[in-house]
Write a structure and sequence with these properties.
The protein is mainly β. The chain has a domain at 575-687: Leucine-rich repeat, LRR (right-handed beta-alpha superhelix), CATH 3.80.10.10. The chain is 6% helix and 17% strand. Strands 1-2-3-5-7-9-11-13-15-16-18-20-21-23 form a 14-stranded mixed β-sheet, with no helix packed on it. It is globular, with a radius of gyration of 29 Å. Mean pLDDT is 86; it is low at 1-16, 343-362 and 698-731.
Length: 731
């Protein structure tokens, strides 16, 4: 009885401590603080809380020990909280946590102690961030993790031992990144892994050496990678049963490509460029091969494969593309005599990926620095060095030189580092990057020059580093984009120029950046973007312009960007938004940020062309009293209308009806008239006297069309929202 009374007393105490913007369910120990205006983790959350849902807030940074007051948490949801940084030790004290969701934030880098303290964590969701690099050791404290989701980030390279410590991980999801370099030991520390998703990346060859470490994996997805050839014994995975190589660029497969994967049962080769296959020696357990969507040439050259299918009793899916007499015929319907040879040109020999010789790795290390032979790392962080040290081991792949007062980077500053992939030069007081500074860094993918004093750059500074994909120049002293500086960087994917003093984006500034996908220009002083300024970046997917001085949407500059899916214009002084301002990107745009602009008026036709593709729309903290018809935005997952002073009269009735049909928390409140001020738009009674009110409530199919007045209906509103409910929250 004493224990029971103590539990009740603790529950009552917890109930009195529920933070004002949140909802606390003390019986189930759940706390919800959804889609609010929180900028810091509340410190009055009941101590006994087990499930904490903080989706849709604005934390930016998760500080050290942010959850020390809630040690009993088992589930923590931080989706869409604009988190950009996890401080080392942010989750200390959460030893009971089993589920952590950090999806759809802006996290760019995972440090070694970012996830410290999560010893019981089983699921970690990091999907939809902008993680460019993971330092080995970042997951070292997650010994209970079974699912790690890193989909839709910005990863290009996986270093050796990057997943060390994940002894029980069963599913690793790396889809929809830009991976094209995998360390040979990248997966070496994953003894329990059963499923690996590497689809939708930039792998040009099957990473056989890295995959050979996965003895227990049964499911491997490599679809949607530009792999052209599978070489002899390319895949040595003893337990593999399902292999997906669909939608790649395969032109040929070696006869014994899968001879060292004896358990393989299903091989998916759909939508490639295969004219045929040889008999697959050693794949004795194979049951099904999918070849649909390949230009199969059903001539005598295909007879050996066809005969092997019958002998091995393998089911084949696919149809002939040639010769004309057999076009459309399924493989299993063919008879050997039908597969004839006329005067055929032999198919071109496939070009196999060349083996790059490994640089000899010596074990020397500069004085006052630390070199790790296991991780191939070198570090001289914060050693007060005045000159860049030399004589690092030749197999160094990550070099950390942060917080040293170098001032300049001279020519040939990094000799003998042909395997270097990641170079950290943040906070080094660098004013000049000399021509030839990076010469010889032929494998360099990541270059971090944040928090320096750079005001200009020349293209010759990047000579010899043509594989550079990520360049971070944030927090420097640029007053303009260094025109032409990126001419020698054909593989540049991500360019960070945020928090400089750039006043204009001019034509020619981005010349040569033809592969650019993500451009970060937040926190500058940009007033104007020339119509042709973005013309070289036809593959651009993300454009972040928040916190600048734009007074209008740069519609003309958006023309010619057919892949743009995210546009951030938050915190720009745009007061009026005219007709069709997003029309040039209407066919691709999915995420639109228009919050905190002081926006006073939006044209009824401002969103012309936008529709079902829009997944998230942020309009919070503006000054307009009405918004355009958005009834065709049927794909919305996030809509934020908080802190907008809506005038809740009959003109707003279409919005009221539409919000009532959404299964989303939108936060819309009335700013006027006086009797409705502060009420939720969906609950305001000011609409009861509007013409057409009753018919709308009775199930009117078009929420934006006012019909003749009818008797008010007491029938309860019914009908499900046309949008998908990802938040599971009530509006």
């Amino acid at each position: 009885w004493g224990l029971l009374l103590l539990t009740v007393a603790l529950g009552m105490t917890a109930a009195t401590r529920c933070p004002a913007p949140c909802v606390c369910d003390n019986l189930r120990a759940h706390v919800l603080c959804l889609n609010g205006s929180l900028t810091a983790i509340p410190d009055t959350i009941p101590e006994l809380t087990k499930k904490l849902d903080l989706r849709g807030n604005s934390f930016m940074v998760i500080p050290v020990g942010a959850f020390l007051a809630t040690p009993y948490l088992t589930h923590l949801d931080l989706q869409r909280c604009k988190v950009e940084r996890l401080e080392e030790g942010a989750f200390r004290g959460l030893g009971r946590l089993v589920y952590l969701n950090l999806a759809s934030n802006g996290i760019a880098l995972l440090y070694q102690e970012s996830l410290d303290g999560l010893s019981s964590l089983q699921q970690l969701i990091l999907e939809g961030n902008r993680i460019e690099e993971i330092q080995p050791g970042a997951f070292g404290h997650l010994g209970s993790l079974t699912v790690l989701d890193l989909r839709a980030n910005a990863l290009v390279y996986l270093p050796d031992m990057v997943f060390q410590g994940l002894q029980v991980l069963r599913w690793l999801r790396l889809s929809h990144n830009a991976l094209h370099v995998l360390g040979s030991e990248a997966f070496a520390a994953l003894p329990a892994l059963r499923r690996l998703s590497l689809d939708h990346n930039e792998l040009q060859a099957l990473p056989g050496e890295a995959l050979a470490r996965l003895d227990g994996a049964t499911w491997l997805d490599l679809g949607h990678n530009p792999i052209t050839y599978v070489a002899e014994e390319a895949l040595a995975m003893a337990s593999l049963r399902h292999l997906f190589l669909d939608h790649a660029s395969l032109q040929d497969v070696a006869p014994d490509a899968f001879a060292r994967s004896p358990q393989l049962r299903v091989l998916d080769l759909r939508e490639n460029q295969l004219q045929g296959l040889p008999p697959l020696a050693g794949a004795g357990g194979l049951a099904r091969v999918s070849l649909d969507g390949n230009p199969l040439l059903c001539s005598c050259l295909l007879r050996p494969f066809h005969k092997w299918l019958a002998r091995a009793r393998v089911q084949a899916e696919g149809a002939c593309a040639a010769p004309p007499a057999l076009r459309g015929r399924s493989l299993d319907s063919l008879k050997p005599p039908e597969m004839r040879c006329g005067r055929l040109r032999p198919p071109p020999s496939p070009i196999t990926p060349s083996e790059q010789p490994r640089a000899a790795s010596s074990r020397q290390c500069p004085q006052r620095c630390v070199c790790s032979p296991d991780f191939h790392h070198g570090s001289c962080e914060n050693r007060d060095l005045r000159e860049i040290p030399r004589d690092f081991p030749g197999d160094t792949r990550l070099l950390d030189l942060r917080r040293n007062p170098f001032s300049t980077v001279p020519p040939d500053a990094f000799p003998g580092l042909k395997e270097l992939v990641s170079l950290h030069l943040q906070s080094c007081s660098i004013r000049v990057l000399h021509p030839g500074a990076l010469r010889g860094l032929e494998s360099l993918v990541y270059l971090y020059l944040t928090d320096n004093h750079l005001s200009t750059l020349v293209a010759a500074a990047f000579e010899g580093a043509s594989h550079l994909a990520y360049l971070d120049l944030g927090h420097n002293a640029f007053t303009s984009v260094p025109a032409g500086a990126f001419q020698l960087l054909p593989n540049l994917i991500s360019l960070h120029l945020q928090h400089n003093a750039i006043g204009e984006l001019a034509e020619g500034d981005l010349a040569g950046a033809r592969g650019l996908r993500w451009l970060y220009l937040a926190g500058n002083a940009i007033k104007h973007i020339a119509p042709a300024a973005l013309a070289p970046t036809k593959m651009l997917e993300k454009l972040q312009l928040e916190g600048n001085h734009l007074s209008e949407v740069p519609t003309a500059a958006l023309r010619g960007l057919p892949a743009l899916s995210e546009l951030k214009l938050s915190r720009n002084p745009i007061k009026h938004m005219g007709h069709s301002v997003f029309l040039p990107v209407a066919s691709s745009l999915q995420h639109l940020y228009l919050d905190n602009m002081g926006l006073e008026w939006i044209s009824p036709h401002a969103f012309t062309g936008l529709g079902p593709k829009i997944r998230s729309l942020y309009l919070e903290s503006n000054k307009m009293s009405n918004i355009p018809n958005m009834s065709n935005f049927t794909g919305l997952e996030i809509l934020n209308l908080r802190d907008v002073p809506f005038h809740c009269d009959c003109q707003l009735l279409p919005l009221h009806r539409w919000i009532n049909k959404l299964n989303l928390h939108v936060g819309a409140t009335c700013g006027s008239p006086a009797e409705a001020r502060g009420l939720k738009v969906k609950l305001s009674t000011t609409f009861l006297t509007c013409p057409g009110w009753g018919r709308g409530q009775a199930g009117e199919t078009n929420p934006n069309k006012n019909k003749a007045a009818s008797k008010p209906s007491k029938k309860k509103r019914s009908g499900k929202s046309p949008t998908r409910d990802f938040s599971k929250s009530r509006a």
